[in-house]
Amino acid sequence: MFYYIYLTLATILYIVAIPILLILTLKSKYKKSIPARFFLINNPPLKENGIWFHVCSYGEARSIKTIIKNFDNNILRFSSITQTGYEVIKGYSKNIAYLPYEIFLPFWIKKQKALVVFEAELWYMLFLVAKKKGAKSYLINARISKKSFPKYMKFRFLYKHIFKYIDKIYAQSYDDAKRLVKLGAKNIKVIGNIKFANLPKPNKSYPKNFDIIITAGSTHEGEEELILDAFLTFKKVQNAQLVVVPRHPERFNKVAIFLEKIAIKNNLTFSKYSQNRDFKSDIVLIDIMGELINAYAISDIVILGGAFANIGGHNAAEAAQFGTKIITGENYYNQVELFKLIEGLTIIENSKLKEKLLDFMALPNAKIEANTNIDELIEDLKSVL
Fold first, then answer.
1. Which fold has domain 2-193+373-382?
2. What are the φ and ψ backbone dihedral angles of 56, each rounded to 5 degrees?
């Protein structure tokens, strides 16, 4: 009965949303993903009898690399719901797809040996249909933040149905495991954060052209203004450079216009990395995916975005591996467990950014103190072959 009620409501929602979906396809961010997910355009089913990994974001897609390297490529299948995630999985296999909207899954999904879903992609029809068609199902790197938990609890009746079709859960922490249990989850193993097991490494080496290099990583709307204000004050007393890396590619042009305007007004040089491929200007915008790690590698200070705005924070481990000084905001509720495993993070109120930057010599250097073991997960997946 629950299945039919859910499918009916999902169908009604789909019909109502069609005009909005058609409008969204005009945006570059959704130009490929929406036609593929909601209208099945150029989005055939994945080849059957494989190990199917489903991820959402760019970061999640990169994190599974440490797992998939243990398997023959011919057995691997991948899906994503975002364009950035899709661009990453394109480099892993030809057996890739955008995950269709739920009402299409009963006839779109083919029989697989296993379904492996990353973090919080809790789609009812995805787990149900894959399980009914013979897949052993896993939820890996599972997390439920303390802030979002009350919202999850309001829909506990739904999550109880979803967890019925998940065979095993690999959680990031014991706190995450406790919250998952309250939502109806069973058979949970805590192995740590998988993102620590496969931190990206630099693929290019750049010279430092300034005494102090500051990288503003994964920034969101409103955060660039805050960071630029602090940097301009800092620049008056230090030979410093600012490298800005927006979180979402669709914001590159908007941020470029803003940065160039500020640079001209303050007699500073500005450049876009896509044009010069170097770090020689006072202010540099990285407007190409995959270059953030190379900027972190030469940075003295990282100002990590996503927590000055109300986003929930971003992964600090990528920068922390280089022992740099990391400053971030107080809205890091999606990264609480991860942040516990990194020593020396400087977490501040937005109004304190300028002050902390000026006193940067007193800031600690970040250090990763994590222990992630994915051996049991690998053996579990090998057992289905």
1. Rossmann fold (3.40.50)
2. -110, -70
